[in-house]
Every structure is written in C-alpha cells, then in structure tokens.
Write a structure and sequence with these properties.
The protein is mainly alpha-helical and 412 residues long. It has 22 helices and 2 strands. Helix content is 69%, strand content 1%. The radius of gyration is 23 Å and the shape is flat.
C-alpha cells in the first residue's frame, strides 16, 4: 500500500478533494480560479497563498498537503471540517476569553448534553462532534455569566462538554486534541467539586491512554477512577452502580490488554456483581451499564486474554433479547468481539457472517473501527465470495485507503 508521502502535492490535493467536492466547488470555497485549482492538482504551480487557502477549504493542515503528515484514518471531508471546529472550540474556550454566543440556562445545557451522549452511544460520532463544539462554547458562556459563588453547576456543564469533545477526538484518532480536552475537563470537574464527574474524567483519560498504547498508565488511572467512587452496594443508587460498574469493567478491559488474567478476572467479578445488583441496564452520566453490559463486555475481555472457549461459552448464554437492551454502539462492538472469537476458533464463515451483519447495520460507526480489518486478516479459510464481500465493505487490502495508485515520481 502506498504511503501518503509517495504522492505528489497535486495528487494529495485531488485525493483530499475526493468525489465529494468538484473542482468548481473548491474554487468557490477558496476564492481561487478553476485554472489555479487545476494547475495545483497537476503539480504545475502551488504558491504559498494558494496552499494556505486549499488547506483551509479542505480542513487540513498545510503539512498534510505537502506530505509531511498523513490525513487521519477514515476521515472524510465532513469529518475534517467537524474536527477543525471542535479543535477551535476546545482551544479557544481554554484561553479564558468569553465566547460570543448566547448562554443557555443550565437545564437546557443538560438537555443538549444528554442528546450528545445519545448520539454517541448510537455511534454517530460526526454528529456528536458537530454538536459538541457549540455545546462547549455555550457552556463556557454560561459559566462566565454565572454569579461568583454560584458557578459549580456551570463548571460541571463545561466538564461534561469537554469530556464529549475528548471522546470524539479520541475515536477520530486526533490524540493531541483528546489529551487537551480531557485535561480541560479534569480542571472543570475539580472546580465543580463533583467527585463523580472527576472519576468519569479520570476514566476518560485512562481511555485516551489505552488508545495511545500507554497501558500501565491507563490501568493505574482506571483503577483509581473505580476505587474513588466504589459504593456500598447495600446503599448505592442505580446511578452510582452504573458509573462504578462501567469503571470496573473498563479496568478489566485495560488489564486484559496487558495480559493480566488475575486482575482482569477480579474486575470482571466486581462488574458482574454490580450488574446483578442493578438487575437492568441503566443510563447515567453518558454511560450505560447493567447485567447485559457486564456479560457482553466480558466476551471482548476474554478474547483479548486468548480465552476463546470462555468467550464462546458466554456468547451461547447471550440472547438477541439481551443485546437489544444495549446502546447501538455497544451492540455493534459486541458483534465485533463475537466475530473475533469465532475467527480465533477458526469458525471462518460464521465470523464473516457476524462481521458483515455489523458492517451493514452500522456503516457510519464501522468506518471508525480498526477491529474489522484485524478480523479479516485472521480469517484464512472462508468462502472466497464472502471474504471479498466483507473486504469490500471495510476496504481491506491494497484498496483500503480508497486512494488511487500514485503517479511514478519520474513522470512528474
């Protein structure tokens, strides 16, 4: 597969423009002539002012066009535009300058935040990001309008908005922005004086570390978040158990990625205990947890530990009625874990059937996931027709990037 640096500047511009933007549309967005656009794409002429205008219109850094940095994986034009606005919102609000937007009341901010989490758990990450930027600006505006001494709830709203921004950035692979947003969320949660929010942010930071392959730090933070809010089961509210259960489950996930079976088993035990105590799935503070969540996530944890038999045994116990209680994103993630377990068990066709079902039911979600490509790489003896069909859905193999072959440098 060609590397991003293998292309010429003109080829990179054309690839970034894609089929979504015609040359005429790009000319209109930049204020440049079509002839200038054509010259840039043909590597005949690319001045610095033209480069700057093209980068802004295509929602990328100039370093991406000149090949110093590759574009983000699975990012389309609308994703890049959304992430650019999200980045501006995160960094601008952190400067301490009041945003020039209307400040909704706290109830309205809470309502919008819940809408954001609903979209998130449906797997509509681009939509969440488009909502998160104005939410953060509005929450910051409310904070500045609150009287001194009455800012705790507003700080909480700001913390929630930063946390959503961090989660979107982390999923999109924009790690620097994820680190920045979760750091601002931590400060806001501390100013809110809310221990539960602080634990949620700590867990969020742990997830950023996990995606950045910083496993020891991720486990340390995940454990801290769980311990800080561990409730007494006899007195705990469903909300407290939801947050605690999701935290210990995540600690089990991190432990499994480190290959620590004993630690993972201990946290899984606590997760199942919390789920059993709840008796049903409950949504709270942007998360969903209950007995079904504990069981389905245990499948992925056992897969990570190489305990395929345990994973398949759990799958046999989980019904469609059970998974129907989960959020859409959690259902899709469970399907991928199931497909991975089947692949590890050399159930090639069953694995591809499960994977294909997830890809077809949630293409908007699947394009932000790396696991489908891993599953396909494991499947070695499936039906060739089925394998090609699934590979086409995820773009596996040489055509994965969707880029054309680069023109040989000697011909440029």
């Amino acid at each position: 597969m060609p590397q991003w640096s293998d292309y010429s500047n003109g080829e990179r511009i054309k690839i970034l423009r894609g089929t979504e933007i015609a040359q005429g549309d790009l000319a209109e967005k930049t204020g440049l002539s079509i002839a200038t656009i054509q010259a840039a794409e043909q590597d005949k002429r690319l001045s610095l002012p033209t480069l700057m205008k093209l980068a802004a219109a295509l929602s990328v850094d100039t370093s991406v066009i000149v090949g110093q940095q590759a574009p983000r994986r699975a990012m389309r034009q609308e994703d890049r535009t959304m992430m650019r606005d999200l980045s501006h919102a995160v960094h601008d609000t952190a400067t301490g300058t009041p945003p020039v937007v209307e400040a909704p009341d706290l109830d309205e901010l809470a309502k919008i935040t819940r809408q954001g989490w609903e979209l998130y758990w449906k797997g509509h990450y681009s939509e969440v990001g488009s909502l998160a930027a104005p939410l953060l600006r509005s929450a910051a505006a409310r904070l500045y309008e609150q009287p001194v001494g009455e800012q705790s709830e507003a700080w909480g709203a700001v913390a929630d908005a930063y946390r959503i921004c961090a989660y979107v950035a982390n999923l999109m692979g924009v790690r620097d922005l994820a680190y920045a947003a979760i750091g601002h969320a931590q400060r806001a949660a501390e100013n809110a004086g809310d221990q539960l929010r602080q634990a949620l942010v700590t867990s969020g930071r742990s997830w950023v570390y996990l995606r950045d392959a910083r496993l020891p730090e991720a486990l340390e933070l995940a454990e801290k978040a769980a311990v800080d809010i561990e409730p007494r089961f006899s007195r705990a509210t469903p909300e407290q158990l939801t947050v605690y259960g999701s935290h210990v489950n995540f600690a089990a996930v991190v432990a499994s990625r480190m290959g620590n079976k004993d630690r993972a088993a201990d946290y899984l035990s606590q997760s199942h205990a919390a789920g059993a105590r709840m008796g049903r799935e409950v949504r709270a503070h942007g998360t969903l947890f209950g007995p079904v969540s504990a069981s389905t996530q245990a499948v992925g944890i056992n897969v990570s530990l190489g305990q395929t038999g345990k994973a398949l045994a759990l799958i046999e116990e989980i019904s469609k009625d059970d998974t129907g209680q989960l959020s859409e994103a959690a259902q899709h993630r469970y399907a991928l874990d199931k497909a991975m377990a089947q692949a590890d068990a050399k159930m090639w066709d069953a694995s591809l059937d499960t994977l294909e079902g997830a890809l077809r039911s949630a293409p908007h979600w699947a394009r932000h996931q790396a696991l489908p490509q891993v599953i396909v790489s494991k499947v070695g003896r499936a039906s060739t027709t089925r394998l090609r069909r699934v590979s086409k859905l995820i773009g596996a193999g040489p055509a994965m990037s969707g880029f054309p072959a680069p023109t040989p440098k000697t011909a440029l």
